[in-house]
Amino acid sequence: MRVLHAVTLHSPTHAFGGPVRVALNLSQGLRARGHEARLLALGDGFGASGERLPTEVEGVPARLFQARRLLPLGFSGITSPALLAAAGRVVRDADLVHVHLARDLVTLPVALAALRAGKPLVLQTHGMVDPSDRLLAKVLDTLAVRRVLRRASAVLYLTGHERRGLEAVAAGKRGPLAGPGSQTGSGEPGGPLRLVRLVNGVPAQEVRPTPSGPPRILYAARLQARKRPRDFVTAVPEILRHHPEAEFVVAGPDEGELASVQALISRLGLGERVHCPGPLSAGEMLAELRHAHVYVLPSVDEPFPMSVLEALAAGTPAVVTRSNGLAGDIADAGAGRVVDGAPELAGAVLELLDPATAGAASTAARKLAAESFSMDAVLDTLLGVYEKC
After folding, report:
1. Is 173 within the bounds of a domain?
2. Domain containing 236: what range?
3. Could you give the CA distance from residue 52 to residue 58 in angstroms, rounded to a whole number?
4. How far is CA 90 from CA 6, 52, 110, 167, in A?
5. Is the dihedral of CA 96, 375, 108, 163 positive or negative?
6. SS3 300
7. What confidence tens digit (pLDDT) does each residue in 257-300 have?
8. Are 196 and 236 within one domain?
9. By C-alpha distance, which of 257, 206, 172, 258 is closest to 369?
10. pTM summary value
Protein backbone atom coordinates (compact mmCIF):
# COMPACT_ATOMS: atom_id res chain seq x y z
CA MET A 1 0.00 0.00 0.00
CA ARG A 2 1.27 3.46 -0.91
CA VAL A 3 0.52 5.82 1.99
CA LEU A 4 1.18 9.54 1.94
CA HIS A 5 1.56 11.19 5.36
CA ALA A 6 1.06 14.97 5.18
CA VAL A 7 2.11 17.23 8.04
CA THR A 8 2.57 20.99 8.23
CA LEU A 9 6.31 21.51 8.75
CA HIS A 10 9.54 19.61 9.19
CA SER A 11 12.61 21.50 10.37
CA PRO A 12 15.95 20.68 12.01
CA THR A 13 14.69 22.34 15.21
CA HIS A 14 11.53 20.19 15.31
CA ALA A 15 9.53 23.41 15.60
CA PHE A 16 6.21 21.72 14.79
CA GLY A 17 6.65 19.20 17.59
CA GLY A 18 4.70 16.00 18.16
CA PRO A 19 2.69 15.63 14.92
CA VAL A 20 5.89 15.28 12.88
CA ARG A 21 7.24 12.71 15.34
CA VAL A 22 4.00 10.74 15.09
CA ALA A 23 4.00 10.89 11.29
CA LEU A 24 7.59 9.67 11.14
CA ASN A 25 7.02 6.87 13.68
CA LEU A 26 3.97 5.64 11.76
CA SER A 27 5.76 5.89 8.41
CA GLN A 28 8.77 3.98 9.70
CA GLY A 29 6.51 1.30 11.13
CA LEU A 30 4.53 0.98 7.90
CA ARG A 31 7.71 0.68 5.86
CA ALA A 32 9.00 -2.02 8.21
CA ARG A 33 5.82 -3.96 7.41
CA GLY A 34 6.37 -3.69 3.67
CA HIS A 35 4.24 -0.67 2.79
CA GLU A 36 5.39 2.40 0.86
CA ALA A 37 5.04 5.32 3.27
CA ARG A 38 6.16 8.82 2.32
CA LEU A 39 6.15 12.23 4.01
CA LEU A 40 4.81 15.46 2.49
CA ALA A 41 5.47 18.73 4.34
CA LEU A 42 6.93 22.18 4.23
CA GLY A 43 10.63 22.36 5.02
CA ASP A 44 12.41 25.20 6.75
CA GLY A 45 15.71 25.94 8.45
CA PHE A 46 17.90 23.70 6.30
CA GLY A 47 20.36 26.42 5.26
CA ALA A 48 20.43 28.98 2.47
CA SER A 49 17.29 29.38 0.38
CA GLY A 50 19.02 27.84 -2.62
CA GLU A 51 20.07 24.71 -0.74
CA ARG A 52 18.22 21.54 -1.63
CA LEU A 53 15.75 20.29 0.95
CA PRO A 54 16.21 16.73 2.22
CA THR A 55 14.56 13.96 0.23
CA GLU A 56 14.57 11.59 3.19
CA VAL A 57 13.83 12.06 6.90
CA GLU A 58 14.97 9.33 9.29
CA GLY A 59 14.71 6.71 6.57
CA VAL A 60 11.33 7.91 5.25
CA PRO A 61 11.23 9.29 1.66
CA ALA A 62 10.09 12.90 1.89
CA ARG A 63 8.75 15.53 -0.48
CA LEU A 64 9.49 18.85 1.20
CA PHE A 65 8.62 22.30 -0.15
CA GLN A 66 10.32 25.48 1.04
CA ALA A 67 8.12 27.21 3.62
CA ARG A 68 6.96 30.74 2.79
CA ARG A 69 5.36 33.01 5.36
CA LEU A 70 2.31 34.74 3.91
CA LEU A 71 0.67 36.00 7.11
CA PRO A 72 1.94 36.69 10.68
CA LEU A 73 -0.25 33.91 12.11
CA GLY A 74 2.23 31.34 13.39
CA PHE A 75 1.99 28.00 11.60
CA SER A 76 -1.35 29.03 10.08
CA GLY A 77 0.41 31.72 8.07
CA ILE A 78 2.98 29.56 6.26
CA THR A 79 2.56 27.65 3.01
CA SER A 80 4.26 26.99 -0.32
CA PRO A 81 2.82 27.95 -3.71
CA ALA A 82 4.76 25.03 -5.18
CA LEU A 83 3.18 22.58 -2.71
CA LEU A 84 -0.30 23.93 -3.44
CA ALA A 85 0.30 23.52 -7.17
CA ALA A 86 1.67 19.99 -6.77
CA ALA A 87 -0.81 18.68 -4.16
CA GLY A 88 -3.22 17.14 -6.67
CA ARG A 89 -0.46 15.32 -8.49
CA VAL A 90 1.21 14.10 -5.29
CA VAL A 91 -1.98 12.65 -3.77
CA ARG A 92 -2.83 10.83 -7.02
CA ASP A 93 0.37 8.78 -6.59
CA ALA A 94 -0.90 7.40 -3.24
CA ASP A 95 -3.38 4.64 -2.47
CA LEU A 96 -4.36 6.42 0.76
CA VAL A 97 -3.68 9.90 2.15
CA HIS A 98 -3.14 10.32 5.91
CA VAL A 99 -3.24 14.00 6.86
CA HIS A 100 -2.09 15.27 10.27
CA LEU A 101 -4.66 18.02 10.13
CA ALA A 102 -4.36 21.56 11.47
CA ARG A 103 -6.08 24.80 10.55
CA ASP A 104 -3.35 25.84 8.12
CA LEU A 105 -2.51 26.37 4.47
CA VAL A 106 -0.69 23.06 4.10
CA THR A 107 -2.68 20.17 5.51
CA LEU A 108 -6.10 21.58 4.63
CA PRO A 109 -5.27 21.97 0.90
CA VAL A 110 -3.76 18.47 0.82
CA ALA A 111 -6.89 17.01 2.45
CA LEU A 112 -9.10 18.81 -0.07
CA ALA A 113 -6.90 17.57 -2.92
CA ALA A 114 -7.31 13.98 -1.67
CA LEU A 115 -11.09 14.36 -1.66
CA ARG A 116 -11.07 15.80 -5.18
CA ALA A 117 -8.89 12.91 -6.36
CA GLY A 118 -11.24 10.37 -4.78
CA LYS A 119 -8.51 9.00 -2.52
CA PRO A 120 -9.30 7.45 0.87
CA LEU A 121 -8.56 10.17 3.44
CA VAL A 122 -7.58 9.55 7.05
CA LEU A 123 -7.34 12.57 9.35
CA GLN A 124 -5.40 12.78 12.61
CA THR A 125 -5.66 16.12 14.41
CA HIS A 126 -3.50 15.71 17.54
CA GLY A 127 -5.79 18.11 19.41
CA MET A 128 -5.09 20.90 16.91
CA VAL A 129 -8.68 21.20 15.64
CA ASP A 130 -10.98 22.20 18.48
CA PRO A 131 -13.95 24.56 18.90
CA SER A 132 -12.76 28.16 18.65
CA ASP A 133 -14.28 31.63 18.47
CA ARG A 134 -11.23 33.07 16.69
CA LEU A 135 -12.13 34.69 13.39
CA LEU A 136 -9.54 32.74 11.37
CA ALA A 137 -10.77 29.46 12.83
CA LYS A 138 -14.38 30.31 11.93
CA VAL A 139 -13.41 31.18 8.37
CA LEU A 140 -11.33 28.03 7.84
CA ASP A 141 -13.99 25.84 9.45
CA THR A 142 -16.62 27.25 7.08
CA LEU A 143 -14.44 26.99 3.98
CA ALA A 144 -12.75 23.64 4.53
CA VAL A 145 -12.44 22.05 7.98
CA ARG A 146 -16.03 20.85 8.36
CA ARG A 147 -16.00 19.51 4.82
CA VAL A 148 -12.87 17.39 5.23
CA LEU A 149 -13.93 16.12 8.67
CA ARG A 150 -17.33 14.99 7.42
CA ARG A 151 -16.05 13.45 4.17
CA ALA A 152 -12.96 11.71 5.56
CA SER A 153 -12.86 7.91 5.50
CA ALA A 154 -11.72 7.98 9.14
CA VAL A 155 -10.95 10.63 11.76
CA LEU A 156 -8.47 9.54 14.43
CA TYR A 157 -8.62 10.97 17.95
CA LEU A 158 -6.59 10.56 21.14
CA THR A 159 -8.93 11.37 24.01
CA GLY A 160 -12.63 11.72 24.75
CA HIS A 161 -12.10 15.47 25.05
CA GLU A 162 -10.64 15.61 21.54
CA ARG A 163 -13.48 13.48 20.17
CA ARG A 164 -16.13 15.81 21.58
CA GLY A 165 -14.27 18.81 20.17
CA LEU A 166 -14.10 17.28 16.69
CA GLU A 167 -17.80 16.51 16.75
CA ALA A 168 -18.52 20.09 17.80
CA VAL A 169 -16.35 21.54 15.03
CA ALA A 170 -17.92 19.30 12.40
CA ALA A 171 -21.39 20.40 13.54
CA GLY A 172 -20.41 24.07 13.43
CA LYS A 173 -20.80 24.66 17.16
CA ARG A 174 -19.19 27.81 18.57
CA GLY A 175 -16.96 28.16 21.61
CA PRO A 176 -15.02 25.57 23.61
CA LEU A 177 -17.00 22.31 23.58
CA ALA A 178 -20.28 24.15 23.15
CA GLY A 179 -23.38 22.53 24.58
CA PRO A 180 -26.53 21.18 22.89
CA GLY A 181 -28.14 24.61 22.60
CA SER A 182 -25.23 26.18 20.75
CA GLN A 183 -25.46 27.73 17.31
CA THR A 184 -24.65 25.38 14.45
CA GLY A 185 -23.57 26.01 10.91
CA SER A 186 -25.31 24.92 7.76
CA GLY A 187 -23.53 21.55 7.76
CA GLU A 188 -21.65 19.75 4.99
CA PRO A 189 -22.44 16.70 2.90
CA GLY A 190 -21.61 13.41 4.56
CA GLY A 191 -22.85 11.46 7.57
CA PRO A 192 -21.58 11.35 11.14
CA LEU A 193 -17.83 11.47 11.61
CA ARG A 194 -16.12 8.11 11.23
CA LEU A 195 -14.22 8.38 14.51
CA VAL A 196 -11.57 5.88 15.63
CA ARG A 197 -9.39 6.16 18.73
CA LEU A 198 -5.68 5.77 18.01
CA VAL A 199 -3.15 6.44 20.74
CA ASN A 200 0.34 7.64 19.95
CA GLY A 201 2.88 4.86 19.84
CA VAL A 202 6.55 4.86 20.70
CA PRO A 203 9.29 2.53 19.43
CA ALA A 204 10.81 0.20 22.01
CA GLN A 205 14.18 1.20 23.44
CA GLU A 206 17.04 -0.82 24.87
CA VAL A 207 17.14 -1.03 28.65
CA ARG A 208 19.16 1.94 29.81
CA PRO A 209 21.81 1.65 32.53
CA THR A 210 20.89 3.19 35.85
CA PRO A 211 21.87 6.88 35.54
CA SER A 212 25.04 7.73 37.41
CA GLY A 213 26.63 10.97 38.54
CA PRO A 214 24.79 14.04 39.79
CA PRO A 215 20.99 14.04 39.39
CA ARG A 216 20.08 15.34 35.94
CA ILE A 217 16.59 16.77 35.44
CA LEU A 218 15.35 17.31 31.88
CA TYR A 219 12.76 19.52 30.22
CA ALA A 220 12.68 18.97 26.44
CA ALA A 221 9.79 20.61 24.62
CA ARG A 222 9.00 23.79 22.75
CA LEU A 223 9.65 26.92 24.80
CA GLN A 224 6.16 28.38 24.66
CA ALA A 225 3.81 29.69 27.33
CA ARG A 226 1.51 26.63 27.44
CA LYS A 227 4.47 24.31 28.03
CA ARG A 228 5.37 26.29 31.20
CA PRO A 229 9.20 26.10 31.01
CA ARG A 230 9.43 28.88 33.63
CA ASP A 231 7.64 26.58 36.10
CA PHE A 232 10.45 24.10 35.57
CA VAL A 233 13.09 26.74 36.37
CA THR A 234 11.13 27.96 39.39
CA ALA A 235 11.36 24.46 40.91
CA VAL A 236 15.15 24.31 40.61
CA PRO A 237 16.19 26.12 43.86
CA GLU A 238 14.17 23.75 46.06
CA ILE A 239 15.65 20.70 44.33
CA LEU A 240 19.15 22.14 44.72
CA ARG A 241 18.53 22.62 48.43
CA HIS A 242 18.41 18.83 48.75
CA HIS A 243 20.76 17.95 45.87
CA PRO A 244 23.21 20.84 45.47
CA GLU A 245 25.13 18.96 42.78
CA ALA A 246 22.07 18.46 40.51
CA GLU A 247 22.09 19.53 36.87
CA PHE A 248 19.12 20.83 34.86
CA VAL A 249 18.51 20.99 31.10
CA VAL A 250 15.91 23.18 29.37
CA ALA A 251 15.98 22.03 25.74
CA GLY A 252 13.75 22.86 22.80
CA PRO A 253 13.06 25.40 20.06
CA ASP A 254 12.14 28.90 21.19
CA GLU A 255 8.53 29.92 20.66
CA GLY A 256 8.58 33.11 22.69
CA GLU A 257 9.68 31.96 26.14
CA LEU A 258 13.47 31.61 25.84
CA ALA A 259 14.25 35.19 26.86
CA SER A 260 12.04 35.02 29.95
CA VAL A 261 13.47 31.61 30.87
CA GLN A 262 17.02 32.92 30.61
CA ALA A 263 16.08 36.03 32.59
CA LEU A 264 14.60 33.86 35.36
CA ILE A 265 17.72 31.66 35.41
CA SER A 266 19.86 34.77 35.81
CA ARG A 267 17.63 36.31 38.48
CA LEU A 268 17.72 33.13 40.56
CA GLY A 269 21.49 32.78 40.15
CA LEU A 270 21.21 29.40 38.40
CA GLY A 271 23.48 30.03 35.44
CA GLU A 272 25.92 27.27 36.43
CA ARG A 273 23.18 24.69 37.04
CA VAL A 274 20.59 25.21 34.29
CA HIS A 275 21.67 24.73 30.69
CA CYS A 276 19.69 25.74 27.57
CA PRO A 277 21.16 23.80 24.60
CA GLY A 278 18.39 24.70 22.14
CA PRO A 279 16.46 22.14 20.05
CA LEU A 280 17.53 18.50 20.10
CA SER A 281 17.70 16.08 17.19
CA ALA A 282 15.97 12.71 17.59
CA GLY A 283 19.27 11.08 18.52
CA GLU A 284 20.17 13.83 20.96
CA MET A 285 16.74 13.60 22.58
CA LEU A 286 17.14 9.87 23.15
CA ALA A 287 20.64 10.37 24.57
CA GLU A 288 19.38 13.04 26.98
CA LEU A 289 16.49 10.85 28.11
CA ARG A 290 18.77 7.90 28.78
CA HIS A 291 21.09 10.15 30.79
CA ALA A 292 18.36 11.96 32.74
CA HIS A 293 17.14 10.86 36.17
CA VAL A 294 13.74 12.53 35.75
CA TYR A 295 11.83 14.06 32.83
CA VAL A 296 9.56 17.02 33.63
CA LEU A 297 6.84 18.46 31.38
CA PRO A 298 4.87 21.13 33.28
CA SER A 299 2.59 21.99 30.33
CA VAL A 300 -1.18 22.26 30.71
CA ASP A 301 -3.90 20.81 28.48
CA GLU A 302 -1.39 18.57 26.72
CA PRO A 303 -3.36 15.92 24.77
CA PHE A 304 -0.81 13.10 24.35
CA PRO A 305 2.81 14.34 24.41
CA MET A 306 5.33 12.32 22.44
CA SER A 307 8.20 13.54 24.60
CA VAL A 308 6.61 11.90 27.65
CA LEU A 309 6.05 8.65 25.73
CA GLU A 310 9.69 8.71 24.66
CA ALA A 311 10.74 9.24 28.28
CA LEU A 312 8.63 6.27 29.42
CA ALA A 313 10.07 4.03 26.68
CA ALA A 314 13.58 4.99 27.78
CA GLY A 315 12.72 4.12 31.39
CA THR A 316 12.93 7.73 32.57
CA PRO A 317 10.25 8.55 35.18
CA ALA A 318 8.11 11.53 34.18
CA VAL A 319 6.50 14.38 36.11
CA VAL A 320 3.40 15.82 34.41
CA THR A 321 0.43 17.98 35.35
CA ARG A 322 -3.05 16.63 35.91
CA SER A 323 -4.36 18.05 32.61
CA ASN A 324 -1.82 16.00 30.65
CA GLY A 325 -3.49 13.27 28.58
CA LEU A 326 -1.06 10.68 29.98
CA ALA A 327 -1.51 11.69 33.63
CA GLY A 328 -3.91 8.87 34.50
CA ASP A 329 -1.72 6.21 32.88
CA ILE A 330 1.41 7.47 34.66
CA ALA A 331 -0.33 7.64 38.04
CA ASP A 332 -1.92 4.20 37.73
CA ALA A 333 1.34 2.57 36.61
CA GLY A 334 3.58 4.37 39.10
CA ALA A 335 5.73 5.52 36.17
CA GLY A 336 6.31 9.00 37.61
CA ARG A 337 4.31 11.66 39.42
CA VAL A 338 1.26 13.77 38.58
CA VAL A 339 1.02 17.28 40.06
CA ASP A 340 -1.63 19.99 40.14
CA GLY A 341 0.78 22.77 39.27
CA ALA A 342 4.13 24.49 39.69
CA PRO A 343 4.28 24.46 43.53
CA GLU A 344 4.34 20.64 43.52
CA LEU A 345 7.00 20.10 40.85
CA ALA A 346 10.03 20.19 43.14
CA GLY A 347 8.52 17.73 45.61
CA ALA A 348 7.60 15.31 42.84
CA VAL A 349 11.13 15.41 41.40
CA LEU A 350 12.66 14.90 44.85
CA GLU A 351 10.53 11.79 45.40
CA LEU A 352 11.73 10.33 42.11
CA LEU A 353 15.37 11.00 42.99
CA ASP A 354 15.14 8.54 45.88
CA PRO A 355 17.03 5.48 44.55
CA ALA A 356 14.39 2.89 45.51
CA THR A 357 11.53 4.99 44.14
CA ALA A 358 13.50 5.78 40.99
CA GLY A 359 14.18 2.11 40.22
CA ALA A 360 10.55 1.09 40.62
CA ALA A 361 9.31 4.06 38.58
CA SER A 362 11.80 3.35 35.79
CA THR A 363 10.67 -0.27 35.54
CA ALA A 364 7.03 0.83 35.57
CA ALA A 365 7.70 3.42 32.86
CA ARG A 366 9.17 0.88 30.46
CA LYS A 367 6.36 -1.58 31.20
CA LEU A 368 3.70 1.06 30.56
CA ALA A 369 5.26 2.11 27.24
CA ALA A 370 5.64 -1.49 26.07
CA GLU A 371 2.18 -2.69 27.07
CA SER A 372 -0.01 0.34 26.35
CA PHE A 373 1.79 2.40 23.70
CA SER A 374 3.82 -0.01 21.59
CA MET A 375 4.20 0.78 17.90
CA ASP A 376 3.12 -2.76 17.00
CA ALA A 377 -0.27 -2.32 18.68
CA VAL A 378 -0.74 1.14 17.16
CA LEU A 379 0.15 -0.11 13.67
CA ASP A 380 -2.24 -3.06 14.00
CA THR A 381 -5.06 -0.61 14.76
CA LEU A 382 -4.01 1.80 12.01
CA LEU A 383 -3.80 -0.87 9.32
CA GLY A 384 -7.24 -2.06 10.35
CA VAL A 385 -8.49 1.48 9.76
CA TYR A 386 -6.74 1.67 6.40
CA GLU A 387 -8.26 -1.63 5.26
CA LYS A 388 -11.79 -0.34 5.91
CA CYS A 389 -11.27 2.89 3.95
Report:
1. yes
2. 216-372
3. 17
4. 11, 19, 9, 29
5. positive
6. coil
7. 999 999 999 999 999 999 999 999 888 999 999 999 999 999 99
8. no
9. 206
10. 0.82
